[in-house]
């Protein structure tokens, strides 16, 4: 396994002059559109147009009807790009016509800021970015905004699934209830864009495992056995999803702290639980970007490596500063 005390690779620094540069931050917004590439490309273009921002990846999933965009850069530039991406989604996505397997309450459903350094001050910066963005979205776009994870103002709103309970359709009436009122903005959903959840979190791995059956109840049972909230693995969120093609179902997971609950452990538990129903794993996928160490951990497990360090990876050594 990777040595636990080995420091993470240094984050890139913003090219500011005259003062110490702030470390880059990452943003990974999820948009409720996975079937119309033109809409997603327009949202991505609005993000990429901000000077200093690098769009690292974006992907669409038709079954989930969802797009995930990953970009990074100096904090102020990333915050501006996040605002423009949300604004583009509000202008182009109508939740009244949206259907998909993934839970959602907004056109720009969730907008997390992610530190690229494992340090308290890096997370504090992301928390401030999230709260500032939330206030701006409410003020300029008339969106109800909820804060989650490290940016949450209320402890019961740390978990994203709690905020999204009932989806967009349920929130239409529930938002006026005292316990469901947003942190910022009006206590009513935007008529076409719903609400937005903004937060700050540590890097996660979006990991999906396909099962060789068309029985959705099997995927749902496996998801219950795997996820933390129903007694499974710590740091794992999971749900069962039916795939439109191939006669398969899927256990869709977020591994929220992959250094603590690694990919291979989640995969092996899915495999074990699926076998109870006579079902095999048909394959897996990672959505968006993943930390290098998460893949190294999985490789070490399946190869049986002992004492392996990420410094033995050729590309890692080439990336290091002299």
Explain the overall architecture:
This protein is an alpha+beta fold and 322 residues long. It has two domains: 25-200, 2-Layer Sandwich (Formiminotransferase-cyclodeaminase, Chain B, domain 1); 205-319, Formiminotransferase, C-terminal subdomain (Alpha-Beta Plaits, 2-Layer Sandwich). It contains nine helices and eleven strands. The strands form two sheets. Strands 1, 2, 3, 4, 5, 6 and 7 form a seven-stranded mixed sheet that branches. A four-stranded antiparallel sheet has the order 9-10-8-11. The longest helix is centred in the middle third of the chain and has 22 residues, at 120-141. It is globular, with a radius of gyration of 20 Å.
At CATH level 2, the architecture of the largest domain is 2-Layer Sandwich
Number of helices: 9
pLDDT below 50 for ≥5 consecutive residues: which ranges? 1-20
Oligomeric form of this entry? single chain
Distance between the termini: 26 Å
Biggest sheet descriptor: 7 strands, mixed
- Main CATH class of the largest domain: Alpha Beta
Work out the number of β strands: 11
Please tell me the overall pLDDT.
92
Q: How would you spell out the order of helices and strands?
A: EEHEEHEHEHHEEHEEHEHH
Integer tally of domains: 2
The CATH topology of the largest domain turns out to be Formiminotransferase-cyclodeaminase, Chain B, domain 1
Shape field: globular
Secondary structure layout plus pairing:
Layout: E1 25-27, E2 30-31, H1 37-48, E3 54-61, E4 66-73, H2 75-92, E5 108-115, H3 120-141, E6 145-149, H4 160-163, H5 167-174, E7 196-200, E8 205-211, H6 216-226, E9 236-242, E10 249-255, H7 263-275, E11 281-287, H8 292-303, H9 314-319
Helix pairs in contact: 1-2, 2-3, 6-7
């Amino acid at each position: 396994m990777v040595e636990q005390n080995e420091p993470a690779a240094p984050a890139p620094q913003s090219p500011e002059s005259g003062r110490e540069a702030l470390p880059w931050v990452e943003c990974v917004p999820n948009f409720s559109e996975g079937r119309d590439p033109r809409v997603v490309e327009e949202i991505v273009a609005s993000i990429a147009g901000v000077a200093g921002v690098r769009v690292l990846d974006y992907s669409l999933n038709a079954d989930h009807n969802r797009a995930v965009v990953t970009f990074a850069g100096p904090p102020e530039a990333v915050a501006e790009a996040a605002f423009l991406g949300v604004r583009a989604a509000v202008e182009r996505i109508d939740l009244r016509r949206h259907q998909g397997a993934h839970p959602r309450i907004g056109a720009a459903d969730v907008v997390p800021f992610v530190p690229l350094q494992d340090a308290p001050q890096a997370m504090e910066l992301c928390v401030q970015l999230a709260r500032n963005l939330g206030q701006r979205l409410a003020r300029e776009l008339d969106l109800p905004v909820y804060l989650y994870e490290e940016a949450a103002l209320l402890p019961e709103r740390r978990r994203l699934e709690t905020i999204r309970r009932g989806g967009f359709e349920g929130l239409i009436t529930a938002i006026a209830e005292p316990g469901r009122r947003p942190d910022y903005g009006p206590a009513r959903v935007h008529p076409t864009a719903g609400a937005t959840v903004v937060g700050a979190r540590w890097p996660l791995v979006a990991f999906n495992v396909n099962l060789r059956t068309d029985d959705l109840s099997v995927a749902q049972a496996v998801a219950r056995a795997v996820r933390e909230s129903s007694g499974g693995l710590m740091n794992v969120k999971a749900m069962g999803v039916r795939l439109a093609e191939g006669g398969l179902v899927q256990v869709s997971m977020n591994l929220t702290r992959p250094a603590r609950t690694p990919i291979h452990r989640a995969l092996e538990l899915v495999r074990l639980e699926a076998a109870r129903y006579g079902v095999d794993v048909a394959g897996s996928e990672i959505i968006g970007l993943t930390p290098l160490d998460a893949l190294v951990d999985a490789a070490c497990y399946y190869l049986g490596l002992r004492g392996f360090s990420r410094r033995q990876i050729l590309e890692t050594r080439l990336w290091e500063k002299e």
